[in-house]
Amino acid sequence: MKPLSTKHQAIEESKTLAINAKANALKADGVTVINFSSGEPDFPTPEPIRNKAIDFIKQGHVRYTATPGIPELKQAIVDKFARDNHLRYEPNQIIVSSGAKQSLYNALQVLCEPEDEVLIASPYWTSYPELVKLAGAVPVFIDTSDTDFILDASRMEAAITDNTKAIIINSPNNPTGAVYPKATLDAIGHVATRHDLFIISDEIYEKLIYQGEHHSIAGLSDDLYRRTIVVNGLSKAYAMTGWRLGYAAASKDLVKLMANLQSHATSNASTVTQHAALEALMGDQHPVAVMRDAFAKRRHVMKEAVDNIDGLSSAPASGAFYLMVDVSSLFGKRHGDTVIENATDVATLFLEKKHVAVVPGVAFGADHVVRMSYATSEADIIEGLSRIRHLIHQLR
Fold first, then answer.
1. Whose CA, among 161, 194, 234, 251, lies 20 to 30 Å from 298?
2. Cα dist. 140→103, 110, 175, 179 in Å?
3. Shared-domain flag, residues 155 and 268
4. Among 270, 318, 276, residue whose Cα is nearest residue 295
5. Residue 276 near residue 49, CB atoms below 8 Å
């Protein structure tokens, strides 16, 4: 038989999903696993959103829609941008996709030629490099581990070459929890303007901020508005991960290209989900505030517990629902016959010996850390970190 595509053989599976799958397999075997690897809220989707979907299904009008989304939803997204971000878009500048990940995929596919370079702050969400590679482009990483995980504009400028086409920014950030200040976004924007770069701004966690406030880089100047693709979705703020609803806003020409691509890839996002999204965006926002307040409390509980365990320390985390935990002081220590050499070894020990799932930093380009999610109950946070403390005390 002829060989398979070489273009896609370099694409790696999502390490976060792989860890989650391993934790779920242990649970299926009857093991009580504390899962700090999850990238989704543990809350149910708010009831009014679920009821909206049920009512729509009962009406029986579940048919294809226009590829970019139903007009009512695109208008609701326009209104959301005006209300929350002071950004003015028209409906023909909006595209609705099957999750924010598809919006990112669409954007990179229509922006990038082979060998174009796309700048990515490191640590990074595990899918960014793979999405860039799927577009035939080259990911270029900029380290932020010594700048509180905030991208330094001078380092960004130093990484730019004649092949640089775009930069991906993500604030609030997965995996670090960092929230970019307005001054930082201004500096990044000036560099992007000077070098004529596109900006893909992933703002999926914008509603989950506990210190500081969210700024969209597209709102800082007319030029940045024109060169930015804003990506967002309902998965995190509305606990709608499985519903698969993301959206993007950009120039009408870019959105047209993204819609053409999507029309041949998946067509419209789920019709049922689009109608549920209307309720999410236009309905009572109190459930979002309730979830945010719960995450804020859990963040405090987890950070305090982590920072009181010898050998662990966590970075400031102002948003999302993750802590980046430095485990490098454990390297070289032993647990029985096992010598810890990197964060992957730490994560393996946590899972195999104490049944606590975390994601090793290698998934995000930083092998001295693990990511812990506090999208779980306070009881699980306390129990999981108690198990980790006990294991670390056993190290020699």
1. 234
2. 21, 19, 18, 21
3. yes
4. 318
5. yes
